[in-house]
Amino acid sequence: MPISTAPDGTPLWRRRTPRADLLVWFGWLCGVALAVACFQFISERTIWAFVWDAPQQGADLVGRMFPPRWDYANQLWKPLWDTINIATLGTALAVAIGAPLAFLAAHNTTPSVALVRPLALVVIVASRSINSLIWALVLVIILGPGELAGILAIALRSIGFIAKLLYEAIEEIDPTQVEALTATGASGAQVLTWGIVPQVMPAFAGITVFRWDINIREATVLGLVGAGGIGMQLEASINTLAWPQVTVIFVLILATVLASEWLSARVRHRII
Amino acid sequence: MTPDARPLLAIRGLTKRYPTGDLALDAVDLEVPPGQVMALIGPSGAGKSTLIRCVNRLVEPTAGEVRLDGEEITRLGRAALRRARRRMGMIFQEYALVERLSVMENVLSGRLGYTGFWAAWFRRFPRRDIVQAFRLLDRVGLAHMADKRADALSGGQRQRVGILRALMQDPALLLVDEPTASLDPKTSRQIMRLLVELCEERGLAAIVNIHDVALAQEFARRIVGLRQGRIVFDGPAEALDAAALTRIYGEEDWSRTIRRAEAAEEEELA
């Protein structure tokens, strides 16, 4: 559009017309003005005296956390093992429900676009919209405290995650491979298991270990609401102001998450 | 016409109108006798792909009938259609192998129509299918690749596996969609030669969609030209002259295209 001719007759080209240029600059101006206004609003509601002595407060807390009480770790191995189990079993349960759900939700595999697909999507969205900590809170009330509530909380949150990513992978498969198997006279179920499943296997494995990795982290906090795992020790330690114990818990969680991250990266690498 | 010479495939008034309103096939009549390799040529969008997909109903025709060995395909229910599809092997431009399955699994997938779900799930195929698969792999020089994953193969090797998958169906007719469009000129010739040889060995008929006119003239005895969903040429390869090409593709200087085909013929005679 912004093509014009210079006085000497050569054609000129610019990215935008002068008018569009002006509009873009005006847009930036509005953005900056909004940011300044927002900061002013936040500033009015902040007690700055508390913020200014934050470094002192932080240093004080860290001081109380050191040296860590290393022998406390001996009481943590069992809860840590519980945490890993909650994450693993929860992920397994989520896979068992989420994978079939994904096939019901994917446009190219659903038995009915009008009825089954919307239903599956609603289940997926409902599962995804609620954080595992909230699921745990609710489940502890229904089932009582303990690991079972934790496992179900992890599973309920993960179903939607796994099903959503998997059904997107199913919708992106190469349709000609499916067409080729259909042309051999294979049945619908055979086309699914021979033509579609092999194509989504890498995505499926990647999604599962990725979610497991997230679930290890989420399982560490479920204990805060009584759903089992190392979070219970964390809450007890914080409530009794036993900061050297809190340090040990943090270190253990960090080590576990690092290990799970390493493991899931290895698995993903192997499969693709 | 003697009763024996009943066509293997008889298409009558085949019409396909896509939901967009495009008329891809306009009342096509076509007969293919048993054992005949026929090339289907025409410009892009002429309806070549739609035509062969209407035969095995990967695309549902709007009107007309398709008879394979006398059986009317267009009105079959799901189970009967699957049985009919076993008699029509299909070969694709981009090979359409299941990339993450092994070569052997891809070849055996041609038997899915004859195999139960759980037998296929556990890869328990009858011994004669396995023997047949190995014999075919040996025939095309890929026996040593049986355990390789399909995506580890070159284009020519993949297309061979694609051909074997179709042959495993024990078909009477091959539907071949641009088999050489993704291959280099040498591999294209090897694949076309292999296709024609295999069809002769087994007495198979084939409809081969192909862009390359010289290749079509070289390997098919009968050529059918499609333009805008209508058959505008149907005759022996030698009868395809500049006038016929103009009818199929439109005005162009065809003298070199035709000379190339003739030169290729002379080369082969020499």
Architecture overview:
The complex is a heterodimer of chains A (272) and B (270). Chain A has helices at 18-44, 48-52, 54-65, 77-105, 116-129, 132-143, 147-171, 175-183, 188-222, 231-239, 243-271, and strands at 3-5, 11-13. By secondary structure, chain A is mostly helical. Chain A folds into two domains: 3-44, no CATH class; 73-271, MetI-like (MetI-like fold), CATH 1.10.3720. In chain A, strands 1-2 form a two-stranded antiparallel sheet. In chain A, helix 4 runs parallel beside helix 7 (147-171). The relative contact order of chain A is 0.12. The model of chain A has no long low-confidence stretch (mean pLDDT 89). With 270 residues, chain B is of the alpha/beta class. Chain B has a domain at 95-167. Helix content of chain B is 38%, strand content 22%. Chain B has ten helices and ten strands. In chain B, a hairpin with a 5-residue loop joins strand 1 and strand 2 (23-32). Chains A and B meet through helix 8 and helix 9 of A and helix 2, strand 6, helix 4 and helix 6 of B.
Give a short summary of the structure.
The complex is a heterodimer of chains A (272) and B (270). Chain A is mainly α.
CATH level-3 fold name of the largest domain in chain A: MetI-like fold
Average pLDDT for all residues of chain A: 89
Helix content of chain B: 25-40%
Unreliable stretches of chain B, pLDDT < 50, 5 or more residues? none
**SSE order of chain A:** EEHHHHHHHHHHH
Low-confidence stretches of chain A: none
Secondary-structure content class of chain A: mainly alpha
Please describe the biggest sheet of chain B, giving its number of strands, its sense, and whether it closes into a barrel.
6 strands, mixed
- State the order of secondary-structure elements of chain B, H for helix, E for strand: EEEHEEHEHHHHEHEHEEHH
Total DSSP E strands of chain A: 2
Name of the CATH architecture of the largest domain in chain A:
Orthogonal Bundle
For the largest beta-sheet of chain A, the strand count, sense and barrel status come to:
2 strands, antiparallel
Question: If you compute it from the alpha carbons, what radius of gyration of chain A comes out, rounded to the nearest whole angstrom?
Answer: 27 Å
Class of the largest domain in chain A, according to the CATH hierarchy?
Mainly Alpha
